[in-house]
C-alpha cells in the first residue's frame, strides 16, 4: 500500500481472525486508548469545470492513541467502508476506550471502541463503529500528543 504521509511504518492488512487477535493483543485490547482523529473520504469530486468524478468507495482513517507503550498509537485504515457511525461521548462522559471489539463480519471487518455485542444491534446502538471490506493498520507511536495529523488545526469553538 502506498505511503502518503511521510511515516516510515508499513501498513499491515488483517486477513484472518488470528491477525485481528494479534493486533488486539499487541495493542492491549485498545485499553486506556482514545480516538484522536478520524478522517473519511469518498473519492467523489467535482472538477474545476464542474464535471463530477466518482471514487471507488469510502475510506476511513482512524488514529488511536493509548496510555502504554511500546505500541502507543496505531492507525486503522478501513477500505471499502460499508458503514461508519460516529457517536461522540456524552457531555458528562470521557472518550476513553476501556476495551474494543475487532472481528470478522460478512467477509470484512467490524471495529468498535467498546465491548462487542451482536451486529444487528449496531444500527440501533449509541456506539461508534466502522465496518469495511478491508482493514489495514500500522504503528503510529511517533504521533502521540494533541497535534492533529490529518489536517491543519481548525478554529475551536465551544459547543452551546
Oligomer: single chain
Gross morphology is globular
Topology order in helix (H) and strand (E) letters: EHEEEEEEEE
The domain count comes to: 1
Assess the beta-strand content as a share of residues.
35-45%
Largest sheet: 7 strands, antiparallel
- Structure class: mainly beta
Helix tally equals: 1
Mean pLDDT across the residues is: 88
N- to C-terminal separation?
42 Å
- In helices, the fraction of residues equals under 10%
Low-confidence stretches: none
- Total DSSP E strands: 9
What is the gyration radius calculated from CA atoms? 16 Å
Give a verbal description of the structure:
Helix content is 6%, strand content 36%. The chain has one domain. Strand 5 and strand 6 form a beta hairpin. The protein is mostly beta strands and 160 residues long. The radius of gyration is 16 Å and the shape is globular.
Amino acid at each position: 500500500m502506498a505511503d502518503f504521509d511521510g511515516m516510515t511504518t508499513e501498513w499491515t492488512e488483517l486477513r484472518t481472525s488470528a491477525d485481528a487477535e494479534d493486533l488486539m493483543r499487541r495493542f492491549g485490547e485498545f485499553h486506556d486508548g482514545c480516538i484522536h482523529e478520524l478522517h473519511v473520504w469518498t473519492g467523489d469530486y467535482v472538477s474545476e469545470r464542474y464535471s463530477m468524478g466518482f471514487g471507488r468507495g469510502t475510506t476511513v482513517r482512524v488514529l488511536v492513541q493509548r496510555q502504554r507503550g511500546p505500541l502507543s498509537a496505531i492507525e486503522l485504515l478501513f477500505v471499502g467502508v460499508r458503514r461508519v457511525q460516529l457517536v461522540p461521548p456524552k457531555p458528562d462522559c470521557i472518550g476513553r476506550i476501556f476495551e474494543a471489539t475487532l472481528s470478522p463480519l460478512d467477509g470484512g471487518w467490524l471495529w468498535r471502541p467498546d465491548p462487542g455485542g451482536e451486529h444487528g444491534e449496531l444500527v440501533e446502538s449509541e456506539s461508534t463503529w466502522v465496518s469495511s471490506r478491508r482493514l489495514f493498520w500500522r504503528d503510529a507511536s511517533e504521533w502521540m500528543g494533541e497535534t492533529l495529523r490529518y489536517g491543519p488545526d481548525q478554529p475551536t469553538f465551544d459547543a452551546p
